[in-house]
Design brief:
Length: 68
């Protein structure tokens, strides 16, 4: 069976194009394997974005403090 493939958020499984509505899934992906790894990649990206946001919030804090 050929793609596109999607990761269904409702059923937590890979499904073909003729599956759940697009607002309940991630994709499209070219292969079943890419779709199966969608959640892991999404978590990694979310963690990276949260870390970047944290660094941005912390940026420059303490610069005006005198340590004399």
């Amino acid at each position: 069976m050929s793609g596109p493939w999607f990761w269904c958020l409702d059923h937590a499984e890979v499904e073909p194009e003729a599956g759940c509505p697009n607002d309940r899934r991630l994709g499209p992906y070219e292969t079943q394997d890419e779709a199966a790894n969608a959640i892991a990649r999404t978590r990694e990206r979310t963690e990276a974005m949260e870390e970047a946001d944290r660094r941005e919030r912390e940026w420059g804090k303490g610069w005006g403090d005198d340590e004399r």
